[in-house]
UDP-2-acetamido-3-amino-2, 3-dideoxy-D-glucuronate N-acetyltransferase (Porphyridium purpureum), 622 residues
Amino acid sequence: MTTSAAGKSDDLQQCDDEKSLAFALVGAGNWGRNHTLRLYERGALASVVDESAAALDTLRDSLVGFDSQKAGYASVFARSWDASGVVLTHDLEEALADPRVSAVVVAVPSHKHFEVARICLERGKHVLVEKPICLEEHHALKLIEVASANRRVLMVGHLVIYDPEFQVMLRAIKQGRIGRVRHMYATRLSLGRFRPEESVASSLASHDIAMILHVASQTSSGPHDATSHTRASEFNVISASECRTTGFVQPDFASLTLRNDDLGIDAHVVISWIHPFKQRQFVVSGERGTLVYDALHPDTSKHVQYFSTAPVVEHDGTVRLVDQGAPSDHAGSGAVQDLLANVDKSGWSDPLSLEHLHFEECIRSGAMVQTDGLQGFHVLRILNGAKARCLTSEQERERLLSMATMPRAPKTDAYFQHESAVVDSGAHIGAGTKIWHFCHVMSAARIGRNCSFGQNVFIGQCEIGNGVKVQNNVSIYDGVVLGDDVFLGPSMVFTNIRNPRSAIVRKGEFVTTRVERGVTVGANATIVCGVTLHEFSFVGAGAVVTKDVGAYEMVWGNPARVHAFVSKEGYRLVPIASNGHIQYRCSVSQQLYEMRARDPTRESQTRYFHPVPSSPTQPRCD
């Protein structure tokens, strides 16, 4: 979608100014009823869709003038916007087939946002979807693509952006009132309303993230366009945590820390639905002062305030508070201005009505939506990144808390376990194996006989053969299979995910890595997942192995390449001529080997070595 210099989208199909816009509403729940009432009051409501008969009954009873004599839900409101009235239906297709309907408001539960919005866009309707745009980032991008392909407006209901009071704060930031923005702090606290289907972060944090991105976009010069979107969206989740303090099924408190390195802005969000006092504050601090948006302040004239006092660091390192360049003796002594005191509010309305009007205006004029699909995607990306951080933090907390009471495998004389090592209950360990200092063996591990694991070795859900020796500081992750007599040098590394991302959990995508009988892996080597190290191969120290290594091959380098061939004992093989073809002799044992084109039992190998049977005069290599 392209944007003109005037802030209009060149790819949108504009609506005739003389034509009335009619809306269908999908979802008659608590917030859907608010949309319904606003649209109905303006005479812009054509139909309401909901799967629940009870929800439609509740909606019907809340609207004045409903014709109760009509059967079913295809019924007429006395105060309808035209003769055909407002239709209540369970069938989305019925609403979309109505020729009056040109726009749809999607207010269904979040997990249904993508499918409903996609259908509406594909049917040629402009769509206002409640926050969050959907639950998966690739679904958000798909909605943006479908909207662009069909030249339709896609808008996300980040309601607070349309609050006139918040717009006053944005104008002050745009005008440079507080100078360069450095930090934002948002608190959204209340007692209830609890949602068993989602955490407090999922339910509430998108409001504050949208505000943060919108403020960041105002710090850039130029129009509100794709460039400001991009710069403003580059917030990374530095930390995130959430907890369940009530035993409720979902977390009820969350804290997020974000940073935009490009703009040099930090942001902090605290949200809770178990706080005894209701609070909604958004604080933006800059180099020349601070703006506070306090939506619940009892004095409405103080909902947006400017504090001109700002800290200044002197050359000697001391800090003093300065108001308009004059020294201040203590915090709070600077000027405080109520930015709403003298504002003309004659054109103001409630944020939801203004959100609808902005949506309508963008449909008619082709202007760029303030909270379009792209911003919805960026909010979702940050929210999902925070969720992933919270999940990781919670899992780590639970792991540490459970260590003291974790069921351990009973010590046995069959194998040796140092007192500092942890062997989880359920692990199978063969006789004669030794597990040394600070090792951790997980419950699903299967370890053979006569193995040795040096200090600080981690063994996950993997299979390990007999006679394996693992040196210090090695982690054998889920998906690794070790054959008999494998040697792993100190600090060598296995991976088990091909495309790891911190913010994306991919525990179902572990890739198997196989290390066959007699293989040696040198110190600090890295084995990229999905490869096979065939029997008696030798990986040199520091090598990075990215593809299969054939039997008896010696590799090193980054990426690892074949440089030589080795015997079972690990000595270099020397080529010799024998009966017109090349054979190889072990430089120490004198055992002969010959190269064969292909092992019929190993489809992945194009060549392999095979020991030649020893003659009476040749030493055997066993």
